[in-house]
Write a structure and sequence with these properties.
Belongs to the peptidase U62 family. This is TldD/PmbA family protein. It comes from Sphingomonas anseongensis. The protein is α+β, with helices and mostly antiparallel strands. It has two domains: 218 residues, PmbA/TldD superfamily (PmbA/TldD fold, 2-Layer Sandwich), CATH 3.30.2290.10; 115 residues, no CATH class. The protein is built from nine helices and 19 strands. The strands form four sheets. It has a six-stranded antiparallel β-sheet with strand order 3-2-1-4-5-6. The chain has a five-stranded mixed barrel with strand order 7-14-15-16-19. The protein has a five-stranded mixed β-sheet with strand order 10-9-8-13-18, with helices on one face. The longest helix has 17 residues.
Amino acid sequence: MLSLDECRDAAERLVSRAIKAGADAADVLYMGGRSTEVQVRLGELDHVGRSEGEEIGLRLFLGARSASVASSDLSEEALGELVRRAVAMAGEAPEDPFAGLAPPGLLASSPFADLDTVDPAEPDPAQLRERALECEAAALAVPGVTNSSGAGASTSASVIALATSGGFSGSFSGTGHGCSASVVAGEGASMQRDSWWQSARHLSDLDSAESIGREAGRRAVARLDPVRPKAGRMPVLFDPRVSGSLLGHFAGAISGSSVARKSSFLQDKLGRKIFREGVTIVDDPLRPRGLRSRPFDGEGVAVARTEIVSGGVLDGWMADSASARQLGIQPTGHAARSVGSAPGVSPTNFYMEAGSRSREELLAAFPEALLVIELIGQGANPVTGDYSRGAVGFLVKDGEIGPAVQEITIASNLLDMFASLEPASDLEFRRGIDAPTILIPEMTVGTA
């Protein structure tokens, strides 16, 4: 894996080679990384893995034609062949009037923001093993837990560099630490499995291995002795473990490419109120230590904290340069890409702000409700917004969480869900997409 300066220089040199080979414009993305992971099961070492690799990708333009190629071989000979192949492919590609680099006036400039995404601590395999063992032991110690599917601990580091013929060059790096456990509760046909995990940029931000294991055990035991709820319409609460999935559906619907293709259920909703008055949804690529923080996007465009929804109103799309040209707007700083593909869009640290009422108040808002902790399947139609997914959760009566339920479905339409949902006050930043507990006042609950 190259250093920050080395990978930026490599990207710049490859851009220059592409221009000398006849390209009208080009950009290059380098990604390098290393990771170590240790898995244990029932107190014994189960797996130790270490990986390290790097890849570089070139996208070049011949007029309105373009091609993208990638290589894990960074030798001069391999890069020369990469450029020749890309030029040949672009010459055969169809013309795309919307393709091209980002506008120069929107590019980020150094010095870039210090996002504190690098932790100098890198635990060795022995330390990772001890963390995994501690996590599993805590999970197995929970009364009712009868077996383990394993526990793990990991550490990783990555470097990213981007250079364009439009004048941009930059690089950044990040680290990651993780811990997880998955255990089984109960015996025979009544067994239930659940897990818990956490990831963080800095080791000091990671919960203790004991608390992660204990939470995995508690969740598995809570799922024992499930019941069947009656089918019908009832309030549904999405636990923070799954509430972020609603933001995932929302992010897909405001993607510039989806809107440009007219395949989004939010197609005509820009500037309109689609959530309740108090709902705010934010994308913040500059949050210190954020799991998705970055100083520039996948095209080199400057990034900033953005309120995508404010006061319930949809204020903008997420667009890369190509989809922005189709929509007649400016790129929004949400371009994301792999080394071998053209940019698409993706949110960064994406979250729904906390509401005013506590989780306990929302649980007690109705005499009976359903608390969902796991979703099954991909049952959301991005064109119509129709929503139907398998679910696992708990019945809630008079604010008290009761017996577990499984083999059920929950259904509605995302437009109706967005318009009526209420976020609780329990927001925590634990993933790339975060939301507090969310109450949907009415959904259709079915049983298998």
